[in-house]
Design goal:
CATH architecture: Alpha-Beta Complex
Radius of gyration: 17 Å
Shape: globular
CATH superfamily: Creatinase/methionine aminopeptidase superfamily
CATH class: Alpha Beta
Number of helices: 5
Largest sheet: 4 strands, antiparallel
Helix content: 25-40%
Strand content: 15-25%
CATH topology: Creatine Amidinohydrolase
């Protein structure tokens, strides 16, 4: 989606705020013993109350309102009867549509107290997102995103999940530019343009560079015992710093905040 008129931006801001507040409502409610299905129900109720519809359900018939991924499941986790345990690393990904406009956001949290390795991965991944967002400008190569993520990963001696990418969003949940790689490559020739609506969502990891789909046809799995984090925002590309639309009214602490 490219923002062409004020109404486009108004609708994008509305759904961006909804998914951001939904994500953080779920994060605040998360506790030991809660199932991921119960956590998903909180997200579904929030979206319903704000007139929004789950994008994974709307677009792909996903079996849940949100994606909730725990520990070695790093993305597209199906909400089920798994009870959360203290020390679980949980990624919540919320994407939704309202009035024909989509927005997408995600973040990683730890149930209860986090350990030093979890904090390291989460802090570095959040830094990668911030560095990539600071680098994007209209007219610059799309490749600046991968370069920034790669630089941060190398600094923190972490790997990158290379088959999970950022993407365009707005008119649909995944649209052009698709497959925005989280690492630098000379093959990437595309450029950012003013008004482009897109996500940036790095996944940094202590595990392998490629994740595999589980037998359920959705969950993307990392090596057991490793840690992977993801943070994601939807934004509009401008001449200066991008306009981030997935900012919640009230933030919650990430695992590295302390």
């Amino acid at each position: 989606m490219t923002i062409e008129q004020e109404d486009d931006l108004v609708r994008l801001r509305v759904i961006g705020r909804i998914v951001a507040n939904c994500l953080h409502t779920m994060a605040r409610a998360m506790e030991v013993g809660m199932t991921t299905r119960e956590l998903d129900a909180i997200g579904r109720r929030f979206l319903d109350d704000h007139g929004a519809e789950s994008a994974p359900e709307h677009c792909y018939d996903f079996p849940g309102a949100t994606c909730i991924s725990v520990n070695e499941c790093v993305a597209h986790g199906i909400p089920d009867d798994r009870a959360l345990q203290a020390g679980d690393l949980v990624n919540i990904d919320v994407s939704a549509v309202k009035d024909g406009v989509f927005a997408d956001t995600g973040a990683s949290f730890v149930v209860g107290d986090s350990n030093g390795r979890q904090r390291h991965v989460c802090r570095a991944t959040h830094e990668a997102l911030q560095r990539a967002m600071a680098a994007v400008r209209a007219g610059r190569p799309l490749n600046v995103i991968g370069k920034q993520i790669e630089t941060v990963a190398q600094k923190h001696k972490l790997g990158i999940v290379k088959n999970l990418c950022s993407h365009g969003v707005g008119s649909w949940i995944h649209e052009e530019p698709e497959s925005i790689l989280p690492y630098a490559t000379r093959r990437e020739r595309r450029r950012l343009h003013k008004g482009l609506v897109m996500t940036i969502e790095p996944f940094l990891t202590t595990g392998k560079a490629h994740v595999d789909e589980a037998d359920d046809g959705w969950s993307l799995m990392q090596t057991p015992g490793t840690f992977t984090a993801q943070y994601e925002h939807t934004m509009v590309i401008r001449d200066g710093r991008p306009l981030v639309v997935t900012v919640p009214d009230e933030a919650v602490a990430f695992p590295f905040a302390a």
